[in-house]
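Crash report, auto-generated. Payload:
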Amino acid sequence: MKAQIHQRPAGAIQIDGISKSYGDTRVLSAVDLAIEPGSFVSLLGPSGCGKTTLLRLIAGFIAPSEGRILIDGQDMSDIPTKRRPIGMVFQNLALFPHLTVDENIAYGLKLRARPKDEIARRVEKFVELVGLSGLGKRRIAQLSGGQKQRVALARSLVLEPAILLLDEPLSALDLQLRKQLQIALKEIQRKLGTTFVFVTHDQEEATLMSDTIVVINQGQVQQVGPPEAIYSSPANLFVAKFVGELNELPAQIFSVGPSLVLDTSAGTIVLPPAAAQGFVPKRGDSVTLCLRPESLSISQNACPHGHAHMNARLIDVISLGPVSRLVLDAAGHRMTSIVMSESRPQGLSTGSAYTIHFDPARAQVFTPLRGQLSGSFGDPA
Amino acid sequence: MNTAERVHPSRLLLLLPVAIILGLFFTSVAMLFSNAFMDRGNFSLRYFQQILDRPDYLLAFLRTIISSVVVAVLAVVLAYPVAMLLWRASERWRNLLLILVLVPWLVSLVVRSYGWIILLGPRGFINSMLAWVGIIDEPLPLMFNDFGIIMGLTHVLMPFAVISILSSLLSIEANLEEASSVLGASAFHTFRYVILPLSLPGAFTALLVVYLASIGAIVTPLLLGGITQKFVGSQIYQEVMSTYNMSKGAAWSLCLLTISFLSVLLFKLFERKALAGQE
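Recovered output after restart:
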C-alpha cells in the first residue's frame, strides 16, 4: 500500500509545574496549564508578568528551572527547538531581510529538502492564504507593517506546525490594521485548526480572538477560562481590574449571614453572599466592592425595587455616540457609569445630586491586593 | 532685515584652518604629480619607463598586489571566528575582548615587527624549537620572504577586519537566529543561510580596508621582507629617505595610487554583484 496518511500532530500542550528563575528573580512559579488542541489561547498579563517567558519555554529557547512541558503527551525537556512541532511569530517578526517574501516563506521547507515544485506550490498556497498574492518577489523592506506580519505568519504556517506561538505580533501596528489582522488571524486559525498560543497585554485583543484566556500576573496563573467568564466572574481583584473597566469602592464587612452587608463611605450596601469572590468573608474584613460601569445606572430619586443604591454627584456626561459615560463622585470616590445614550435620563445636570443604583447580583467583592501590581497597568511594552 | 542671517565677518576666520589644510593637501598632490614627470628639471617619463622595463620593479608591484590580496582574504577569514566570539559575548566581555583585539595597535609597528623576527627568524623561536625536536636540520625560511610579510601584515591589519565584521554582526536584528531555529535550522544552517549573508557587507568592507592598508604598507615589509623581497611602499620609502630621488618616489607613488584606485573600482563592481539583491 502506497497510500500515506499524513497524520498531523494535534497540538495539545500540557505544562506541569513550570518554574523559571534568573538568579534570585523568580519569573514564573509553579505554572500548571493544559491547552486544548486546536484552540486559540491567549496569555494575558501586564508587561513583566512572565507570559513571554512561558512562550519561550514552550519554544525551547530557554529551559525551565523546574517542571516540564509536554506536547501531545511527549516530554519536550530534551527536544531542541528545531525539532519541536511549533512555529513562532516574534514581536519584532524577525523576518530575514536578505530574502524575498517567497524565500522567507520557503526557508523552512528548503531546510527540510523538499522537492522544488512542492516548495513552490506550498509557498504559493500560503502566500494566498495570508493575502499576499502578487507580492512574492518583494523584499521585506518593501513591505508595509501589516504585510510583514502576514509574511511572518505564512513563514511559520507553511510548515504546518501543530502549535503556533505568537508573541505580541500586533503590538507595533496602528489600531485600524490591528483590528483587521486580529480578524484575519482568527480566521486563519479556524481554517487550519492549529493551536494558537497568543501572548498579549491587551485584554480587548485577547477577548476578541481567544477561546481561552490565561491571565498571568507576577509569574502566576490568576485565572483560566473563556473570555466571558474572565470578564463576568473574575477570580480576584487583579483579574477584575485587568480585564475591562472597573469601579472600586473600599468597604468593610458589617455582617455576614443571609446577605453580605458592607459599610462604605457612600452608604450601606446589601449584597447576596455569593458576591464575595475567592475568599470567605468575615465581619470586619476590609474588602473592595467592584462594579462594572455598565451595571451602574443613575436616577434622580427612586430606584428600581431590589437594587442597591448610593448617593453621588454628577461630575460630567460624555457622549460617545451610542453610549454615554457618566462620571460621578460618590463620597469622594470617582465612579463611572456607562449607559445607552437613548435610555439615559433626560435633563441631566452636572453638579446635581443623583442616586447610583445597581443590581446587587452584579456586584463583586474581593480582598484588596497586597500592594503588588498597580504600576504595570497600561504599560504597552 | 533679518539680522540672524547676516554673518559677522569675523566668522569667516573660522574657514582659515580648513583653507590651510586643503591648500597644503592639494599643493602636495600637485607637487607629487609634477615631481613624477620631472627628471632634473625637465619633463620626462623616465621613471615610469623604468618600472615597465625592469623585471624586478614589475615584480615588486605584482608582489605587493598579490600579497595584499592574500593578506586581505587571510585577515577576513581569521577575523570571522573572532568577530563571532565577540558578538556572542555579553557586552562586558565584548568590550574587554575588543581591547585584547586592539592591543597590537598599542605597540609600535617596529617593535611588533621585531616580535615577528624573534618568532620567525632563522634562529627564531619556531626554527629553534623545530630543530630542537629534530624535525628540521636547516632553519626554515620563514621570513625575509613573502611568507614573513604576509604573516606580519595579516597580524597588523586583522583588527580592522574584526571591527568591521563585528559591526555588521551587531546590526543583525535580534532573534533572527531563534526564528531560524524554530523553522528547523541547525546552528550551522543558521550561520550559512542567515548570519553569513547578513554579515557579508562587513566582510566586504574589511576586505577592501585591509587590502588598501596592505598595499601601501612600508615598515612591516621593510623589516620582515628583507632587502630582496621589495614591497612598493618600502621601495618608495627608500627612494625618498635614502636615495633622495624624489622624482622616482613620486612616479612610484602615482602608480600605487592608480592601482589602489582601480582596485577600489573593480572591488566595488564585484561587491555589487555579490551582494545583488541585498539592501
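Post-recovery validation: DSSP finds eight helices and 20 strands in chain A.
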